[in-house]
Specification:
Layout (H helix, E strand, L loop, with lengths): L1 E3 L9 H4 L2 E4 L12 H8 L12 H10 L1 H5 L30 E9 L13 E2 L6 E3 L4 E6 L4 E7 L6 E10 L5 E11 L2 E11 L5 E10 L11 E8 L3 E9 L5 E10 L7 H15 L15 E4 L1 E4 L2 H6 L12 E7 L5 E5 L4
Antiparallel strand pairs: 1-2, 2-16, 3-4, 3-8, 5-6, 6-7, 7-14, 8-13, 9-10, 10-11, 11-14, 12-13, 15-17, 17-18
C-alpha cells in the first residue's frame, strides 16, 4: 500500500492526511523474490541508461537522396566547391567567399545543473560530416557536404534545460546588396519556419543563408514554436547570420542550408518558398522524432485506489506535464535524459 501525504507527517496520522492511497492486488512480488531489495538487485537494477538521441542522420540521408529535386527549384543553381580536407575544411569557393569561406557556430547554455557541470556539448565551430552529441540535452548535430549544404541540429532537450545560439559565419565583403525573407509552411502536423538572408549584386555568385526550424506538436511532442532573436552583424571582411534561441525548446529540429545562384542576381522569394516547402516534405517523412527512445524495460503494476482517483492525481501534476496514464506503480522509471528512479507512484 502507498499513501501520498505532506512531508514530515507522523506515521500515525498518514491515513487522515492522505490525498491518495492505493495498493496492488495481484501478488506480483512473489515473482520477483518477495521484496524490493530483490527486485532492484536481481531483476530491475537501478542503472542509468545511455542518453537518447534523435536520428538526425536519417533526415540528412533523405535530403541527400532528394538533392537534385531541391537544387532544381533554384534557377541557375551554383554548385559551390568544398575544401579538400576530410572534415576540417569548409565551403571554400572563391566564387562565393573572399577568404575563409563558411563556418557554422553553435553554443548552448543550461539552467538545470551547477555551472561547473560539464555538459559534453562541445560548443564552437562544427566539423564537416561529424556528429556532435550533447548527453544532458539529448541533442545531436551533424551536416553533409552535398548540394545544397545542410546542417541539422536535433534538440531533444527532454529536461527543458538548454537554450542555444546558432550562427553562420561567412567571409565575404560588405559590398553586397542584402535582402531578407521569412516564411512558414504547414504540412499535416508539421510546421516549418524559415528566415533567409540573401546577398547579391557583386562579382561573387549570389547566395542565401537560410535558418529554419521544424516542429510537430502532435507526433513529435514538440514544445511549440521556439522564440528566436536574429543575429545579423557584419564588418568589411565577415558577416554573421543566425538565431539566438530562447525558451528551452524540446523535440525540435533546427537547420541551416545555403543556396546559391551562378550570376549575381537576387534569388526570388517564390523559389525560396518552393525550396523550403520541398524541404518540409522530405523532413516530414521522419514520423518519430526519437525512434530509439524506449522506456519499455520497466515493471509497471496496476493498483486500486482506496483514497482519491485519477482526476485527483492529474490535478496534482505540474502544468507543464500532460495527463499521464494513471492507476499503476512503476518500478525503475527512466527519465528522458537516461536517469533512473526507483519508483514512479500512481502513474507510468
Amino acid at each position: 500500500m502507498i499513501r501520498h501525504v505532506p512531508n514530515q507527517t507522523p506515521l500515525e496520522a498518514t491515513r487522515e492526511e492522505s490525498s491518495l492511497q492505493y495498493q496492488t492486488e495481484n501478488g506480483f512480488m512473489k515473482k520477483y523474490g518477495g521484496n524490493l531489495h530483490k527486485i532492484y538487485n536481481y531483476h530491475y537494477p537501478l542503472n542509468p541508461m545511455s542518453a537518447f538521441y534523435p536520428n538526425v542522420n536519417l533526415t540528412l540521408d533523405r535530403l541527400a537522396a532528394k538533392s537534385t529535386e531541391l537544387t532544381s527549384l533554384i534557377s541557375d543553381f551554383y554548385f559551390y566547391k568544398y575544401g579538400t580536407a576530410t572534415v576540417t575544411d569548409k565551403v571554400h569557393d572563391s566564387n562565393l567567399f573572399s577568404s575563409y569561406g563558411l563556418r557554422i557556430y553553435f553554443v548552448t547554455t543550461q539552467s538545470c545543473y551547477p555551472r561547473s557541470y560539464q555538459t559534453n556539448c562541445r560548443n564552437g565551430y562544427w566539423l564537416y560530416e561529424f556528429d556532435y552529441k550533447c548527453d544532458l540535452g539529448n541533442m545531436i548535430r551533424s551536416n553533409r557536404k552535398m548540394h545544397p549544404y545542410f546542417a541539422l541540429f536535433a534538440v531533444g532537450n527532454f529536461e527543458r534545460c538548454f537554450d542555444m545560439h546558432l550562427d553562420a559565419q561567412s567571409h565575404r565583403p560588405d559590398t553586397d546588396a542584402i535582402h531578407l525573407y521569412k516564411g512558414s509552411h504547414a504540412l499535416n502536423n508539421f510546421f516549418l519556419h524559415y528566415e533567409a538572408q540573401c546577398r547579391y549584386g557583386t562579382l561573387y555568385a549570389s547566395l542565401c543563408d537560410i535558418w529554419f526550424y521544424v516542429i510537430n506538436i502532435k507526433d513529435w511532442n514538440s514544445s511549440g514554436m521556439p522564440i528566436t532573436k536574429p543575429i545579423n552583424v557584419s564588418n568589411s571582411r565577415v558577416y554573421h547570420f543566425g538565431w539566438r534561441v530562447y525558451e528551452t525548446p524540446s523535440n525540435t529540429l533546427f537547420g541551416y542550408t545555403m543556396i546559391s545562384r551562378k550570376n549575381a542576381t537576387l534569388i526570388p522569394e517564390p523559389e525560396i518558398n518552393a525550396f523550403t516547402h520541398k524541404m518540409l516534405e522530405i523532413i516530414s517523412e521522419t514520423e518519430n522524432f526519437c525512434p530509439d527512445c524506449s522506456y519499455d524495460d520497466v515493471l509497471s503494476v496496476p493498483v486500486q485506489f482506496s483514497i482519491g482517483n485519477d482526476l485527483v492525481l492529474n490535478s496534482m501534476l505540474p502544468p507543464s506535464v500532460k495527463p499521464l496514464p494513471t492507476g499503476f506503480v512503476q518500478f525503475r522509471a527512466y527519465g528522458r535524459s537516461g536517469s533512473v528512479y526507483a519508483m514512479c507512484p500512481a502513474v507510468k
